[in-house]
Amino acid sequence: MRPIAPLGRRRGAVTRVEEVGAYRVLHVADARGPLPAAGQFYMLATVRGWGAGEDERPYLPRAFSFLSADAGTLRFMLEDVGPGTHRLAGLQTGEELWLTGPLGEGFRPPHDGRQALLTGGGVGVPPLAAWARQLGDRPLALLGFRDRVHAAGARMLDAAQVRVATDDGSVGHHGLVTELLAAQLARDRHAVVYACGPPPMLEAVRALCSEHDVPAQLALEAGMACGFGACYGCVVPVRDGGYVRICVDGPVLDADRLERVP
After folding, report:
1. DSSP string, 125-166
2. pTM attached to this predicted model
3. Which of 68, 82, 246, 252 has the fewest other C-beta atoms within 10 Å?
């Protein structure tokens, strides 16, 4: 069974802040929450300065997969790309977050003797890093980034064998991470692909795995208002008709349930 979030939100103090290339990694104290499963996520908001005050823009909490977790500490990797992430990226040691989580469905282990093959990029790295640690045996991870500065995020997968692709060719393969994936699947189809990243990348992963008849579990990204399935703001259509909510039915979904990644 997946770990269940305690009712309500709780405070967690930032105990350390790391700079990793284009990203910031927040270490957050969380003595009251259960250990999460890889692929689950949290809704984060700063305790102070988050909005709704004079001259402030009100924000909804932001959904973040965790990078790692141990007794009493969570780590989150983020990039400053908008108002919410800008405020989170500006947190300093001693400041506090509101934490809600862990939420959602995480990854499931390989079966039928298949090998885990991790694929992702950018801020899709955290759930893959958590999954690599949980799996053990240093699974292969294929990661794509914009450039050398962003490729520093590959260091977060210290429990995996990593191959990197960059858009500008400054690190590793010059091209898309899905090119690395296509070459790997051509060599070995006896795998389960675990992927997280932007929707166009996930759609390419879904299509490749369908073409090679390889099962895949996709950790989808979506803007979420609540994280509990109440607002229906993160629904995606599924192949057999109807919709699923990423926050409660996912974020990890089997690729073959999806007609496409929206």
Report:
1. HHHHHHHHHHH-S--EEEEEESSHHHHGGGGG-TTSEEEEEE
2. 0.94
3. 82
CATH no. of 10-103: 2.40.30.10
| Residue in 104, 138, 132 with CA at minimum distance from that of residue 219 | 104
Q: How confident is the model at residue 52 (pLDDT cuts 50, 70, 90)?
A: low
In the prediction, which pLDDT does 56 show? 66
Is the dihedral angle over the CA atoms 93, 131, 165, 224 positive or is it negative?
A: negative
Stretch(es) of the chain classified as CATH 3.40.50.80: 115-257
Q: Over range 88-92, report the average pLDDT.
A: 94
Task: Write down the pLDDT at residue 186.
Answer: 94
CATH 2.40.30.10 residue window(s) in the chain: 10-103
The Cβ of residue 115 has, within 10 Å, a number of other Cβ atoms equal to 13
Over 90: is that where the pLDDT of 15 sits? yes
Q: Decide if 29 contacts 72 (C-beta within 8 A).
A: yes
Q: How confident is the model at residue 174 (pLDDT cuts 50, 70, 90)?
A: very high
Sequence-distant contacts of 203-209: CB under 8 A, at least 24 apart? 203/260, 203/261, 204/176, 204/178, 205/119, 205/178, 205/181, 205/255, 206/255, 206/258, 206/260, 206/261, 208/178, 208/181, 208/182, 209/185, 209/255
CA distance 22 to 141: 20
Rounded distance between C-alpha atoms, residue 254 and residue 192, angstroms: 11
CATH topology of domain 115-257: Rossmann fold (3.40.50)
Strands 23-29 and 73-78: what pairing? antiparallel
Task: Report whether pLDDT(57) > 70.
Answer: no
Fill in the amino acid letter for 51: G
